[in-house]
Amino acid sequence: MDIEKIKSKFMNLADEIYIFDTTLRDGEQTPGVALTVDEKIQIAQKLDSLGVDKIEAGFPASSNGELQACSKIKSLDLDSTIVGLARSVKNDIDAVLDADLEYVHLFIGTSPLHRDYKLKMSKETIISTAVSAVEYAKDHGLDVEFSAEDATRTEKDFLLDFYNSVIDAGADFIDIPDTVGVLTPVFTKDLMTYAKSYFKTPISVHFHNDFGLATANSLTAIECGANQTHVTVNGMGERTGNTSLEEIVIALHSAYGINLNIDTSQLYSLSEFVGRLTGVKMPVNKPIVGENAFAHESGIHVHGILNNPFTYEPISPELVGHSRKIFLGKHTGANALKSKLKDYHIELDDNQFDTVFNQIKSLGDKGKCITDDDLKAIALTELGSAREKPIKLKGLGLLCGAVVSPTATVKLEIDGVEKETSNTGVGPVDAAINAIRDLIKDTMNIELEEYNLEAINGGTDALADVFVISSDDEGNKSTGRAINDDIVMASILAVLDSINKLLLIKRS
Ligand code: KIV
Ligand code: ZN
């Protein structure tokens, strides 16, 4: 899509769109998040390497640490412009100057709620306070961006007077904050169209995500001519956060064909890095950077993806430095399983493949999501299991409790004939193995020489991996292995696997 075509659709689109990142200021206002100076420096370096135009490094007047962070980030001489936040008071602007910054983001509340309940100031006093702050900042050589806090709940006429006054006083950029996230795309369009018709000064937007619309509203504002949007990594920020950096950059790139000077391949690693430092993990379904953003399980989808990833992906994971994942579970199709096994260089014959496929489906039906480790273990176990299975498990019943002896009822098919019996033991596994011994005693006697139980991956729903060595009365030994979500089943199937191998030796 070329920019001229987009411009003809959105007549007011600005020639340049700037990304103002406020992860280190509004993002840090995420409840429970506090970054050290060093952590802020590391994030600023990554934002700069990504290519954002402005980095709001902090609120220098709020603490010594904030002032230090802003000043140290400024001293790195990054390509991004470093911005400091300040209330419309001399002291705050001095702190921005003390941090050696050249760009101040000034703000003051303008809505009736802020005027009456927070600032207790008249409209006139608010305008004169803002104007004095701009004049002071400009007199001290600062570039000024001015935000009318809670702009979207401010009377339109007053907002117009307010912005005109700060522009006349010398503001270089005006910013429209939707402080409590009440806008929708339609209201955003109205507001931006109105603002664009009145102001020649570049306009920025700062949108919160209370209704989940921050990205949509920022895109609408850009369509209507906004020159800049404030964003945060992972959409962090007060309450439900701000417009998300990764969402806006990729939506502009992919839906509008607008490429900013951003190295999109760093988006996923930056998201992970910020998530680790702040302790705020992204939900798996977070657009662009969530763990499931390029993950597929359904057979129909995986089939499409294997032929052409764009069948079920809007962009390629490489664009944002992410990777594609194919999950196995109850929706898995044969194609997905084949492709996974190929990745692991595991070759199964048709019978083995069917067994693995059915086991995965049945685990999926029980609500289990099969990890790559689970699949490898299941497939390799099947590969190593007895080639023929003269003895098959047809049924198992267990009775356990505090006052009764553990009792197992086992039904086997032996060479096509079904037999069933019950026995007791010191535990359910022992009871089941005793019942198996009874059922096969006409064919052979077996001893369990070794029994080993491990869990694949941690967690209470981990699959049990049982390895056994059994011997028969002729001195033959054989291994057996089985994986199951139930420890007793895994144990019994492992023992049966070793018995089948012994039987094949006996009959060879
Ligand atoms: O949301 C807001 O209004 C702000 C201001 C400081 C601009 O973050
Ligand atoms: Zn904010």
UniProtKB/TrEMBL annotation:
Gene Ontology annotations of biological process type: L-leucine biosynthetic process
UniProt-listed InterPro entries: 2-isopropylmalate_synth_dimer, AIPM/Hcit_synth_CS, Aldolase_TIM, LEU1_arch, LeuA/HCS_post-cat, LeuA_allosteric_dom_sf, PYR_CT
GO MF term (any one): 2-isopropylmalate synthase activity
Coiled coil: none
Domain of life: Archaea
Pathway it works in: Amino-acid biosynthesis
Keyword annotations: Acyltransferase, Amino-acid biosynthesis, Branched-chain amino acid biosynthesis, Transferase
Pyruvate carboxyltransferase domain location: 17-268
UniProt-listed Enzyme Commission number(s): 2.3.3.13
Subunit (UniProt): Homodimer.
Family: Belongs to the alpha-IPM synthase/homocitrate synthase family.
Protein name, as recorded: 2-isopropylmalate synthase
Source species of the chain: Methanobrevibacter millerae
Organism lineage string: Archaea, Methanobacteriati, Methanobacteriota, Methanomada group, Methanobacteria
